């Protein structure tokens, strides 16, 4: 028996669908609070020293956290090539805006304190705000468009044609999802600041975090209601072979109202995902007001897990539906790399992902504790 045949093609596809979700949730749960802190910087810190404290809560860890984004992009490229081709070409301008905003973060960290000018530092503070707000918004907008279907089609030779434009992505439902993403990550950033700071900064973070948590609950509920009432979902009509070759055109897809909720009726255990989304955000709201710092961060991560998981579970087995050619929609069963490729990647992931997780845990252990003003004035490596 060939080694990779120990796992069926169907099993490997499901495993890689789960791993893709793990990487995306890992990015949101780690680098998400970096983005949230960036958004809160001009508001949580009122003086130059307070803002330096805010920056130095994420300064030592943001690069490591961003590894999850790189891993997610690499997983899409290697495990789901058609998804990579459609999303990275169709969302090209949006991706460019995200990268441009993310580039502002290291530049802002390095250059902000190079001059004593209040105007100089204030401008960099707002640049760091943009570096947190823009990616948070666009990531949510992208998810909103995926739920509605993306305007791409496939030729008979599987050549991809994208019929949309950047401004078409900015539709009401997608913007609602974008605002949900902003609120969720602002809540997460607030939870991090409450854990890592003290005094007035932590007090302001607690207040802004409470607002963000309430907004997360309301926007998540509004998004689910809008998805139920106004957004048609997709479903596969007829049989599809989970072990078959990757050819998105070998199936028939129907667009139907409420189709994104069919999985919850067929598999009630999936309702745990949206429940955790609500409970995590409500728990973070309660914990912020009760002074439980570590619990606040964990509950915020739980909300992120539930909200993102609910999107994946609602859509399964779809990973990128097509609004103009439903039959070309990409699913777990027909948009993956080969059986052998998925197996080799799984072995590599099984080796290196635990190493990354252990190293990340060690870094947080070493850097555990609050950032105080004396750490800025006495430390030789503070931003």
Question: How does this model look, in words?
Answer:
The protein is mainly alpha-helical and 383 residues long. Helix content is 69%, strand content 6%. It has one domain. Strands 1-2 form a two-stranded antiparallel sheet. A two-stranded antiparallel sheet has the order 3-4. The N and C termini lie far apart (57 Å).
Total domain units: 1
User: Which strand-content bin applies to the residues?
Assistant: 5-15%
Low-confidence stretches: none
Q: Name the shape in a single word.
A: globular
Cα radius of gyration in angstroms:
22 Å
Average pLDDT score? 93
Descriptive keywords:
383 residues, mainly alpha, two-stranded antiparallel ribbon, 14 helices, 6% strand
Q: How would the blueprint of this fold be written?
A:
Blueprint: H1 9-44, H2 48-58, H3 62-65, H4 67-79, H5 81-90, H6 92-111, H7 118-148, E1 152-154, E2 160-162, H8 172-196, H9 199-230, E3 232-237, E4 252-257, H10 262-266, H11 272-290, H12 293-315, E5 318-320, E6 330-331, H13 339-366, H14 373-378
Antiparallel strand pairs: 1-2, 3-4, 5-6
Helix pairs in contact: 1-2, 1-4, 1-7, 1-8, 1-12, 1-13, 4-5, 6-7, 7-8, 8-9, 8-12, 9-11, 11-12
Summarize the structure.
By secondary structure, the protein is mainly α. 69% of the residues lie in helices and 6% in strands.
